[in-house]
Amino acid sequence: MALQAILGAQEQADIAQIVKEHNGTINQGKNPQQNLGKDDFLKLLITQLSYQDPTAPMEDKEFIAQMAQFSALDQMTSVANDFSRLNQMLAGNEAVGALGKGVELVVGDELVQGTVKAVTRGAAPEVLVNGTYYQWDQVTKVFEE
Predict the structure, then answer these.
(1) Where are the beta strands (DSSP E) in the chain?
(2) Which pLDDT value is given to residue 33?
(3) What percentage of the chain has pLDDT greater than the value 70?
(4) Residue 122, domain CATH
(5) What is the distance between the alpha carbons of residues 58 and 61, in angstroms, rounded to a whole number?
(6) What is the pTM of this model?
């Protein structure tokens, strides 16, 4: 018999709230992730090795396949990080290239035009236009004055 048939609507709501609160204490306020990373993969592999039956250990082919998957995951993570750093460098170089040129930016519903007087570098470069710093990604047009 299904649990819903035994419990009333209020009891089901109470149980759902208790489960939600319990999960919140377990996760310490963090949102659960939907994707597994390399650390999660390694934890699963270690757990699997810890609890395997010594009389019937994991076959070497399975172990090698899992290690290859871990290696591929590690390399993909490294490539993704490298692409992120490259993207930041390109944005910074693009902003520096606008130094002394006219720009058009969108700030909310406003269109701002002016000359780039200074540029900050970093993960989110900013440009100084008309005495105010703006995010580089707000720039929609760069032109010669």
Answers:
(1) 102-107, 110-120, 126-129, 132-135, 139-143
(2) 61
(3) 86
(4) 2.30.30
(5) 8
(6) 0.49
